[in-house]
Amino acid sequence: MEARDNNVLELRGETLGAITNQSSAEEIFQNRTLRPILKLQNDLFIQVFINYAVKQKNVFFSLTPERKMAYIENVVHRDIKFRNSLKGMIIAFFTLEEYAEYIQISSNLNKRMMNMLIERLKSQLQLIEQ
Question: Which of 42, 65, 66, 110 is 20 to 30 A removed from 11 (C-alpha atoms)?
């Protein structure tokens, strides 16, 4: 399994964000693990969201920008199957050690990862609209 972990870490790249002595375990995990994965998987997340919106009768594409933002937030928080699919795309890039750490504080980390993903999708609304 060491080879897989090394390959995953190499693919993800470096830590994104500052880690200090005052950083909580969740902040460290966020900057060392979640941010690089979200960056790596960004194009996939956009395509997955577009596909989701199309399958939902294209309602998203006729909304105002403000309502699109609310739609993104609502979908990620409320559609459990969709959220679990997104979560799986993130967890798939955890190392075994990171997964062991994740399961200890998964509730807090799930909130963080979904909020980060929501903000990422909202900030790229123009790419989603094309």
Answer: 110
Structure tokens at 11: 């693919």
Within 13 A of 126's CA, how many CA atoms are on the CB side? 1
- Tell me 99's DSSP state: H
Q: What is the pLDDT of residue 1?
A: 67
Closest CA to 30 of 44, 16, 49: 16
Residue with tokens 């870490």: 9
What value does the mean pLDDT take over residues 72-101? 97
* Torsion 71-74-25-40 (CA) sign: negative
Return mean pLDDT, the chain. Answer: 94
Contact call for residues 90 and 38 (beta carbons, < 8 A): yes
Distance CA 39, CA 45 (A): 10
Backbone angles phi and psi of 11, in degrees to 5: -60, -45
Residue 120: name the closest of 53, 48, 55 by CA.
Answer: 48
Amino acid at 28: I
CB atoms within 10 A of CB 94: 20
